[in-house]
Amino acid sequence: MNICVFLSAADLDERYTAPAREFAELIGKGGHTLVWGGSDVGLMKVVADGVQAAGGRLVGVSVEFLRGKARAGADEMIVAADLAERKAQLLARSDAVVIMVGGTGTLDEATEILELKKHGLHTKPVVLLNTAGFYDGLREQFLRMDAEGFLPLPLTELVFFAEDGAGALAYLEETAGIR
Fold first, then answer.
1. Of the residues 51, 84, 91, 127, which has the fewest C-beta atoms closer than 10 A?
2. Pairing state of beta strands 33-36 and 2-6?
3. Helices within 30-164 (DSSP H only)
4. pTM of the prediction?
């Protein structure tokens, strides 16, 4: 399965990097491919290292202005002209999406992917990996949106919140129908 992972390129605390390494190992050992932003820095590097070390493939989609941070050892590296093209390529090359911890770029990617799914423009499973409760506030907001009628489909059909990588991968393997 080609798993798109949206995540931070920042250097982060061990409470975020340790679970990311564990999830990366599960992706690699499962024979899956990581489809990610292509950067060889921060948490993106941690996950790419883990997937590659565990035998998985790496498909990066960088962007022209970040070309200098792209991972040289990826199995495949695409360089998009801009962020919009990058997001489109990431989605097109994946069977499922996992949103890990991140900043405004990750939040932008997450909301676009969810908006596209809401409108039926893709049906790929989407998981918010809630490492260390990072997305508790967002989950609360989504629950409110759902309860107050702001979502045209039930929240459970839009996104799955996983507390750990094993739960995220199990959900993806079950819902994507690809192993």
1. 84
2. parallel
3. 42-53, 83-92, 104-118, 136-147, 155-158
4. 0.94
Select from 68, 124, 71 the least CA-distant residue to 93: 124
DSSP 74-90: -SEEEEESSHHHHHHHH
Distance, C-alpha 46 to centroid of its chain: 14
pLDDT, tens only, 31-89:
999 999 999 999 999 999 999 999 999 999 999 999 999 999 999 999 999 999 999 99
Rg from Cα positions in the chain = 15
Closest CA to 83 of 100, 101, 107: 107
Residues sharing a CB contact under 8 Å with residue 66, sequence separation 6 or more, in sequence order: 37, 38, 39
Residues 60, 35: Cα–Cα separation, whole Å = 6
Buried b (16+ CB within 10 A) or exposed e, 65-102: ebeebbbeebeebbbbeebeebbebbbeebbbbbbbbb
